[in-house]
Amino acid sequence: MKMQSLDQTRTALVTGGGRGLGPAICIGLAEMGCNAAVNFVSNAAAAAEIVAACGAAGGQAVAIQADVSEEAEVSELVAAAREPFGPIDI
Questions:
Q1: Is the pTM of this model over 0.85?
Q2: Distance from C-alpha of 15 to C-alpha of 64, rounded to nearest angstrom
Q3: Which of 6, 28, 25, 7 is closest to 16 using CA atoms?
C-alpha cells in the first residue's frame, strides 16, 4: 500500500513512541516525510534506536523523555518537541 507523503514541515508528537505500536508509528511517519518527536518514559536506548530508524527512513526525529501522566512533564514535552521542529501538527 502506498502511503501519502507529508510535508517535512509537519511534525508529529508520538506519546508512547518508544514501545508497543509507537515505534512503527514513528517510522511510518518518517517514511512519509514527517518529523517525529518520540516520547519515551524510561528506555532511552530504545528511543535512540527509533530515532535512528526514522532517519534511515528519510525523516527527522528526536527522542524526548516524559511521563505523560504528569502535567508538568507534558508541558516540558511539548516545548521540547517544538524546539527543533516548530509547531506540532499531529
A1: yes
A2: 10
A3: 25
| 79-88 per-position pLDDT tens digit | 999 999 999 9
SS (H, E, C) the chain: CCCCCCCCCCEEEECCCCCCCHHHHHHHHHHCCCEEEEEECCCHHHHHHHHHHHHHCCCCEEEEECCCCCHHHHHHHHHHHHHHHCCCCC
Angle between helices 44-56 and 22-31 (to 10 degrees): 20
Query: How many other C-beta atoms can be found within 10 angstroms of the C-beta atom of residue 29?
Result: 25
Whose CA is closest to 58, among 31, 38, 36, 29?
31
